[in-house]
Amino acid sequence: MANAQPRKSDADREAAALPESPAAAPVDCATGGLMEPGARTDVLNRLRRAEGQLRGIQRMVERGEDCLKVAQQFSAVRRALDSTYVRMTVCLLEQEIGARVAPDSALASGLPAILGELETMLGRRG
Q1: Does 49 score more than 80 pLDDT?
Q2: 119 versus 62: which is more confidently predicted?
Q3: Taking CA 94 as the corner, what is the angle to CA 92 and CA 96, rounded to the nearest 5 degrees?
Q4: pLDDT digits (tens, 9 = 90+) for 28-40
Q5: Residue 31 pLDDT
Q6: How buried is 6 (Cβ within 10 angstroms: 0-12 exposed, 13-18 middle, 19+ buried)?
Q7: Taking the CA atoms of the chain, what radius of gyration do you get in angstroms?
């Protein structure tokens, strides 16, 4: 069977089942942080994705799968948690700055773009 497709691990299947949250479309956290349904849903989806990946890694270890495959899944879950941390950091900044800036100021109107660029930049770090 030279044309056989590589078998996807449980972690791959579970991660693929959840929709990807785009990092370039920040959720508005300015008014209520995690009290905002969109922000809460975004963070929970990201955490659920990471949780599914961790469960998959546990099963891989229990089955004694190849260390390289397990390490690749660790890398994926780490990236998922890192992106969630960046999202939460930007949400915190948006919430705290928004609470201290007058809603009609020039800074307030430019804040979403600035924080979106910050999130993109932080998401690209090594």
Answers
A1: yes
A2: 62
A3: 65
A4: 665 567 778 888 8
A5: 57
A6: exposed
A7: 18
DSSP states along the chain: -TTPPPPPPHHHHHHHHSPPPPTTS----TTTGGGSHHHHHHHHHHHHHHHHHHHHHHHHHHHT--HHHHHHHHHHHHHHHHHHHHHHHHHHHHHHHHHHS-TTSHHHHHHHHHHHHHHHHHHT--
Instruction: Report which of 22, 30, 37, 42 is spatially closest to residue 109, judged by C-alpha positions.
Output: 30
User: Amino acid identity of 32?
Assistant: G
Q: Which amino acid is at 18?
A: L
> 60, 82, 85: which is closest to 71 by C-alpha?
60
Length of the chain: 126
Tell me the whole-structure pTM to 2 decimals: 0.64
Predicted local distance difference test score (pLDDT) of residue 61: 96
pLDDT in tens, 58-77: 999 999 999 999 999 999 99
Helices 67-100 and 10-17 meet at what angle, rounded to 10?
30
